[in-house]
Design goal:
mainly alpha, Glycosyltransferase, three-stranded antiparallel beta sheet, 17 helices, about 40% helix, globular, MGH1-like_GH
């Protein structure tokens, strides 16, 4: 632990160094020995996209541990390629979190689409940030990555993950991945899902217990009705053995954020394939096709934002969620589309630069609630994504301002889970892992960071991601003998 904290203090002085040490201390405290939990209290297991964001931050102080974070997650991958959204820690009592392993029943007798037998997981997924994270982790210390064979080990699993999303999850037949539960896009109770959820019969009252309310205010969490519908959807999927083709999906949506992250990660996977001597062309072609589908199916030029598509009704879901801004990270996005997204972000619905970070939903909408989870509060991970998108498209001043806001908020709120966008007051859990991890990454950012390797060069190198060079602190952490293990032992399903 001492070596890791010392490494965290090697870059910068004063407040910057203090914040770096504090963020590293959060990640140390939430480390279980093989992975990082989002929170010791509310989220005591490993979450999929949380671990990807954690690895992105950890690479600056402990690249070997960042590699292990992703390797642990991929160790729970299913035979069909899916990466489950929760990997359960068997030492955590069942009553500490719901839905617990006995609800999901992943390792039943039929092994549910090839679920692993040695570990219990959930059966749904989360946004595919993982290949992007793996590439950035490699760039943090390429020599150590190559020495450990990190990319050759993770590439097959990442490729299978992307194949699963491109095939089994193309429920609309239009070249985009669909989400089948509000927990899958990571924006659980967003107003964007209200109409789709309204057609879901709630699970009976009393058939589940909300452990999340033991740790958070009911005013900040999804409602009991929302939760009852979440449980119904998950149980229906489970009872159909997590078979995407056979399950009667009452909730099936093409989400802009989910697919933008898949495209960015597909570009990163092409870079990984090149590094390991595999065929990068498949990934570049898939990224290009998905970008075309994203523009054809989800871009609304009149609204100036990407809109989710409800595959049950076949119609776009109107409204302005932060998900619709995240495609700024997509390499090769037409500049006129990027410019329109920036105008929307700066307009009255999100007020970029005027309120704290990026609200998760339209500030002017009647559904907006600045305190309740994804119905309006600003989150650090989506701010990080928008920051990268702004920087990619040359919006340097706006990116710099958002970065400064995020660092100030992380420091001021003790790494809160999310913020009320008008007051900047921290909400949810404190010492939240992805907030700390992304603060570490933003401390390192030069303001030139892009979202993933571009597909414009056949000879791209490790410098494909501007601003993601090998940090001195990471090199020192490795040479200082930082262990792969760590300190400590090791809700609403996010």
């Amino acid at each position: 632990m001492t070596a890791l904290l010392e490494a965290a203090a090697t870059s910068g002085t004063g407040r910057r160094a203090r914040l770096r040490r504090a963020a590293t201390r959060v990640l140390l405290g939430n480390w279980t020995g093989a992975a990082t939990v989002p929170s010791r209290a509310l989220y005591p297991h490993q979450w999929s996209w949380d671990s990807a964001f954690v690895a992105i931050g950890l690479r600056h102080v402990a690249p070997r541990r960042a590699q292990r974070e992703l390797e642990t997650l991929l160790g729970a991958q299913w035979g069909d390629g899916r990466v489950p959204h929760i990997v359960f820690n068997p030492s955590v009592p069942l009553g500490a979190y719901f839905p617990s392993p006995d609800f999901w029943r992943s390792s039943g007798t039929d092994r549910n689409a090839g679920a692993p037998s040695a570990v219990e997981t959930s059966g749904i997924v989360q946004p595919p940030v993982h290949a992007l994270a793996a590439w950035l982790v490699h760039l943090a210390d390429p020599a150590e990555s190559r020495r450990r064979g990190f990319l050759p080990r993770v590439y097959p699993g990442l490729a299978a993950w992307h194949r699963y999303l491109a095939t089994s999850r193309d429920l609309g037949g239009g070249g985009l991945a669909a989400v089948t539960h509000p927990w899958e896009p990571g924006l659980d109770n967003s107003p964007s899902w209200d109409a789709a959820l309204a057609r879901v019969e709630p699970a009976p009252r009393g058939s589940f217990r909300r452990a999340d309310l033991d740790h958070g205010s009911p005013a900040d969490r999804p409602t009991d009705l929302d939760y009852a519908r979440y449980v119904r959807l998950a149980a229906t999927y489970r009872d159909h053995s997590y078979d995407d083709a056979r399950t009667p999906h009452a909730f099936a949506i093409e989400d802009p954020c989910f697919n933008a992250l898949l495209i960015a990660s597909e570009h990163a996977l092409a870079a990984i394939a090149r590094e390991v001597g595999a065929d990068e062309g498949t990934h570049r072609r898939r990224a290009g096709a998905a970008t075309g589908a994203l523009l054809d199916r989800l871009w609304d030029p009149a609204a100036g934002v990407f809109l989710p598509r409800d595959l049950v009704t076949g119609e776009p879901i109107t409204g302005y969620g932060v998900s619709g801004l995240v495609p700024l990270i997509v390499p090769g996005l037409p500049e006129e589309v990027a410019a329109a997204l920036v105008r929307t972000a700066r307009g009255p619905r999100f007020r970029l630069g005027e309120v704290h970070l990026v609200p998760s939903y339209d500030l002017t909408a009647k559904e907006f609630d600045g305190n309740r989870y994804w119905r309006g509060p600003s989150w650090f991970n989506t701010a990080w994504l928008v920051h990268r998108g702004l920087a990619r498209h040359g919006e340097t001043e706006a990116a710099h301002r958002l970065r400064a806001q995020a660092l100030d908020a992380a420091d001021r709120t003790a790494f809160a889970e999310y913020l009320e966008p008008y007051t900047g007051e921290g909400r949810g859990i404190r010492r939240f892992s992805w907030t700390a991890a992304l603060a570490l990454d933003l401390l390192h950012a030069s303001g030139e960071t892009s979202g993933a390797p571009d597909n414009t060069s056949d000879n791209a190198s490790e410098d494909d991601v501007p601003g993601d060079d090998v940090p001195g602190g990471a090199r020192e952490a490795r040479s200082g003998g930082t262990p792969e293990g760590g300190a400590g032992e090791g809700g609403s399903a996010r």
